[in-house]
Structures are given as C-alpha cells and as structure tokens.
Design a protein that fits this description.
Layout: E1 2-6, E2 11-25, E3 31-44, E4 49-53, E5 63-65, H1 68-88
Antiparallel strand pairs: 1-2, 2-3, 3-4, 4-5
C-alpha cells in the first residue's frame, strides 16, 4: 500500500493505492463491503496542523500537531491501524 498526498492551501488529502475493501455500516445497520482509497486529511491552521482520519477507516478523534510531517505520520499510522483492524473483523 502506498500513501499519496494531494496538497492544497487549506487541506491536504491522503489517499492510498491500491484501493482496500473494508466493511461499513449502512443507515439500516447492516454491514456492507466498501472499496476505500481516501483515508484522511490534514487541515492547515495558522499555527498548527489538524490531522483527521475518515470515520469509515478509523473512529479516532482529530489531533493537532506543530509540524506537518508529524501530522502526516499520524494520518498514515492511524489509517494503517484502522484498515488492519477492519480487515481482521471482516
């Protein structure tokens, strides 16, 4: 799996390649297979970086970092953990 960062002025989006199949719940509560390639993003603030993981990947809360590289490492690490846990419970 490879992480790809799409840089923007306010948000940096993180995707993976190749796509990974995980399970997600529909509004009715039944789990369904879902192909995911977007795993998280970083919101750029004036003095910090807010790392976010998409809820389908991992339910962890956003976290603030002083440096961009720390925020990127957090998104990648938590995405790997979330995807691995999801695959183990499929």
């Amino acid at each position: 799996m490879r992480f790809i960062w799409e840089n923007g002025e306010v948000y940096l989006r993180c995707t993976i390649t190749p796509k990974v199949r995980i399970k997600t719940r529909e509004w009715g509560g039944t789990p369904n297979p879902y192909w995911v390639d977007a795993v998280g993003y970083i919101k750029v603030h004036a003095d910090s970086y807010e790392a976010n993981i998409y809820g389908t990947v991992s339910p962890v809360a956003p976290k603030l970092f002083a440096h961009l590289e720390q925020a990127k490492a957090y998104v990648e690490e938590q995405s790997l953990i979330g995807l691995a846990v999801n695959k183990l419970t499929m």
